[in-house]
Design goal:
about 40% helix; alpha/beta; 4 strands; four-stranded mixed beta sheet
Length: about 90
């Protein structure tokens, strides 16, 4: 799968721009990168995400619930996250 993470930082916020297909391995990698940013607000820019597996979607739903902000979130991702929260 094609996948890329780019990190952009300001004094208070770190944004990870995700591109391509996100699976459970990619979610684990992203989780490790986000853990290093414990003192910063974290955003995920999902504009260029093309595919997300169910395992990765669960990670994204948990990240958002923990305070991670999504930027440019595709509607299909938003719908699936909302369904995960409802337990569907």
């Amino acid at each position: 799968m094609t996948y890329r993470i780019q990190r952009f930082a300001t004094a208070r916020r770190v944004t990870f721009h995700l591109s391509g297909e996100v699976d459970s391995d990619h979610a684990a990698e992203l989780e490790a990168l986000m853990a290093v940013e414990s003192g910063s607000l974290v955003s995920l820019d999902l504009a260029d995400v093309t595919l997300v597996t169910r395992e990765a979607m669960k990670f994204l739903a948990g990240a958002e619930a923990a305070g991670v902000v999504f930027v440019n979130c595709p509607e299909y991702v938003r719908s699936w996250i909302n369904a995960e929260r409802r337990g569907a």
